Each structure stands twice: as structure tokens, then as C-alpha cells.
Amino acid sequence: IGYCGPNSYRFCFSSWSGNIGGGASKPNKEERWLAFSNGCDNCFHHTTMSAALLVIAYCVFFLAFLIGVCWLWPEFVESSDPRFIRSALHAILAVESALELGMWCGGVVKPWMLSVILLCNVWGWLDAFMRFPVVHDIDTFFALKHIMLTIVKIAAYALGFNKLAENVGWFVLVILTCIFTLPILWLTALPIGDTGSYHQHHNVVDVDMAVRCYRTVTNPHERREVYTAARITLRRMLVRLSQACPCLRDSVIRLDPALKRALHTKTAV
What are phi and psi for residue 161, nearest 5 degrees? Predict the structure, then answer.
């Protein structure tokens, strides 16, 4: 009974007690063995399906890692400008955050994990991607912050992953996907070793996000700059969206009539 699992034993016991409560006679030996065998079969099929699904998930991850991270990503980095790489990193971060929020909504992790996910993804990786391609030394606050946030996230998943003992394989896959993939993409995109690009002007603000938020709240000049930058970014996104989907051009023009000329000439804002 212990090998087949407690579920089959509980199934047999509940069937027996239900019959007793309904006034039926005590099941004979053959009936008890049949109920026990059905419970064992269900447990075996469930375990087999879970193991097969886990193997498929690992195969998909390693295949995507080999093709995407090891092959396509380096070629994209070599042939693209830093702003396009930055946009790609933001898109990958959005996908990873959606995956983690999905696990949180599905009950895979405990409720308090939401605060850890937002802290690490926003103050950690969003801040790093906004400052790309600036390279920081290992002894700076930026590097120490990311090391600590990575350690905190690993420890949080270890403590906040529901039924960890029963789902060790899924836990390891989540760690590989949601913690180590983004740092690998970011580090391979950084111009590490290219000393000429360390002090190159990249049109990015190399200031910690927490400091920038504090300045935005306390300094009116900073608020105006943030508003102007957000407006320009939004206009660029609308122009690209209308160029990718011409059917949305009229809606974009109604939303912001100042973009009419840019859309007709197909020039960037």
C-alpha cells in the first residue's frame, strides 16, 4: 500500500466507509482488491504523465536555449544597434514577468512571491536594461545589487515554491528559465572587453532607478524630463505600430493628430 501511494489507500477506505454509511454490507476481499488496484493504476498513470510532461518541458527549454540564446541571440547582438538590443531585452523581460505572474496566479508559488518578483524584475532587470549598454565594474553598487537580488530570488523560490519536495524537477526548470536565462542574454549583449565603448555616449541615463524615482517625485524639472521622454517614446511606438498595421493608421492619427505628417512620410519621430 505504501508503494502504490496513499491516494489509492484513501480511495479504498472512502469507498468502504461510504458503503457502510449507506447501509450496504462490508465489501468482500475481491471488491477491496479491485478498488485498491484501480487506485494504484490511477496513481501510476498520473505519475507517468507528469514525468513525460517534465521531460518534454526540459527538451523544449534546452532546444530553445541552444537555438535562441547560443545561436540567434549572438547574431542579433552583432548586427543590431544598442537601442534595438535594449528593446529586445525589454520584450524578453515582459515575457518572463508574464510567465512568473502566471505561475503566481495559478498557485505554483506562494502569494508573497509577487513582491519578490516585482522587486527583482523592476528594480533589478528593468533598471539594468534601461542602462544598457553601459558596463559596470564588479565592485560597484550596480553589480553588488544584482548579485544580491539574484540570491534573494533563488532563496525566495526555494521557500515559496508550493510542494517543492514533489516537484523538484519543475523547480529546477523554473530556476533555469526565470533566473539564469536573462543574465546570460544581458551579459552576452554587453560590450565586455571593448574598452573603447565603456566611455562612449549611448544616450542613456546611468542612474539607479530608485534614485531616478526619488528625483522625479521631488524635482519638478526631473518630472518634466520624464514626461517628455515618455511622450516621445509613446509616439515612436505608435508610429511603428501604424507602419506594421496600416489599418490602425487612422486610429493613431485621431489619437495624436501631430503624427499625421510622420505617418504619411514614414519617418521616425
Answer: -85, 120
